[in-house]
Amino acid sequence: MTYKLVAGASLLALGAAVQAASAQESAPALQDVIIVTGSRYDTATQTGIAPDASPLDGADITRLAARTPGGARLSNGELSGQMAYRGLAGERLNLRVDGQRFASGGPNLMDPVFHYAPAPLVSAVIIDRGVSPVSEGPGLAGGADAVFKRQDFADGPDADFGYDLTASARSVNDGLSVGGMAGASTDRWRFNLLGAYEDASDTDYGDGTIGGSSFQRSVYGLSAGAKLGIGEVGLDLRRHEADPSGNPPFPMDIQYVDTDFAKLSYKADLDGVTVNASVNYTDVDHLMDNFSLRPSPAPMQTRATFTEATTRGAELSASFDWQGGELEVGTDTARAEHDAIITNPNMAAFFVTPFPDVTIDRTGAFAQWTGTIGPVESELGVRADWHDHDAGDASLAAMLPPPAQMLAAAFNASGRSRRTLPWMRSRASGRRSATACPGAQRLPASRPCRATSSALAGCPSAPAAASPTATSMSAISGSIRRRR
Predict the structure, then answer these.
(1) What is residue 45's predicted lDDT score, i.e. its pLDDT?
(2) Do the Cβ atoms of 255 and 242 come closer than 8 Å?
(3) Nearest to 326 by CA among 274, 252, 267
């Protein structure tokens, strides 16, 4: 059974309608994406949706992305769900959070990309239908971007205040989720604060309780921008803190994931050429163990693993009119640094370094043309990426047996620095028109498909989410918003 706050429902419906109109008015030609509203219980189209088909029956935003045709969710914990799309998952997808790419802190993706996108902060999840545009970065095929709520620039010099807040609760795990953004802007500057807090105990189901499925997460930060004589500059800062959170499918659970995000962007129009540039930084500190949220193993088998991941990246592109369309050329680069150490809290002398000072460098270049060829709106692109990687010396405790010592020695004696040949990827697509989803309104190719949660739940190609808690879960949700 699902309950809705009446006031929140009416405001959310109005907000969804405004967002849909705005997206269609500003969409570029052949924007090959599905835009899925990230607000909980989008009542603009919720009529007729059953609770067991609701995309957001949990905290993870991948539950929403899984409602798109071809999408799925790999359930590795309430905060560790991985998005799968058309049979691909993990590093094979080009996944971003608010346009930023970064390396996971967990070697086994205990903190996948969308772990860092709490639903109360997400305005939309934009999913590439086929191969991602080459301008969006590397990836085998497909991709998605969780776009955060933001206070946009106003139309005039007077300050305009806005907010977008969401709160929800679930009885299945005594879960609570609150968050959103609030800020102000003029036509020259913008500023908003954002924050979210989520907490839940172990999940109940028909036959009992799923042990070690509780979670806790908080995110806070700011977004600011200014239009200056030299162009438009933007700054985004966030702090992400995930406290003890269960991962029943894994041999370990999250104890903490503390992460800092920073991004500085620049945009300018120079005599018909639009220049975009940005630099970004992400730093992840992560601890997982096998005894805090589950029955403790024998003292010799107790483990606690500390991992770190730091990503530094930069992007530069220029776009201009060419041959009846728009040509964008650019380059991007990133360096990811990983380190990990496995310990036993009961034995101070025990340690293993399975990822010793690993460094991965990537530099890419691309060219992408978007325009009309005859009656077909087309996007053509090519991309090349160069990869370098290096690793330090592995080390381990002297008490470990000879086979482990020999394995470490063989690793240290091997060549651990390598440069790969350019990895090429091309993209070519074209169409006369695009369909939102089966049964949805047919839109011209120049308009994106805005599919709300309940609309997608009604698509025959979107499999129903079989939630083990659907028969016993009740939820209450509400949103209030006033933003540009």
Answers:
(1) 23
(2) no
(3) 274
CA distance 172 to 470: 9
Report which of 21, 60, 11 is spatially closest to residue 38, judged by C-alpha positions: 60
Query: Between vectors from CA 235 to CA 359 and to CA 156, what angle results, nearest 5°?
Result: 160
Task: Give the containing element (helix H, strand E) for 454.
Answer: helix 453-457
Q: Which of 237, 152, 251 is nearest to 195 (CA)?
A: 237
216, 244 Cβ separation under 8 angstroms? yes
Sign of the Cα torsion 118, 120, 121, 125 reads positive
User: CA-CA distances (angstroms) from residue 334 to 133, 152, 286, 388?
Assistant: 18, 28, 21, 11
Q: Name which of 196, 125, 200 is nearest 165 in CA terms.
A: 196
Which carries the bigger pLDDT value, residue 303 or residue 205? 303
DSSP structure string for 31-79: --EEEEE-SSS-TTS-TT--GGG-S-SSS-THHHHTTSTTEEEE-SSTT
Question: Given this model, what pLDDT does residue 374 score?
Answer: 85
Main-chain dihedrals φ then ψ at residue 454, nearest 5 degrees: -70, -30
Q: Provide the strand spans (E) within 396-474.
A: 418-419, 423-431, 433-435, 442-444, 449-451
Check: CB of residue 85 under 8 Å from CB of residue 139: no
User: What is the rounded distance in angstroms from the CA atom of residue 31 to the CA atom of residue 19?
Assistant: 16
Burial bucket for residue 139 (CB in 10 Å: 0-12, 13-18, 19+): buried
Give the model's pLDDT for residue 292: 94
For residue 357, count CB atoms less than 10 angstroms from its CB and return exposed for 0-12, middle for 13-18, buried for 19 or more.
Answer: middle
CB atoms within 10 A of CB 303: 18
Give the span between the Cα atoms of 330 and 479, in whole angstroms. Answer: 39
3-state secondary structure of 289: strand
The 10s digit of each residue's pLDDT in 218-269 is 999 999 999 998 999 999 999 999 999 999 999 999 999 999 999 999 999 9
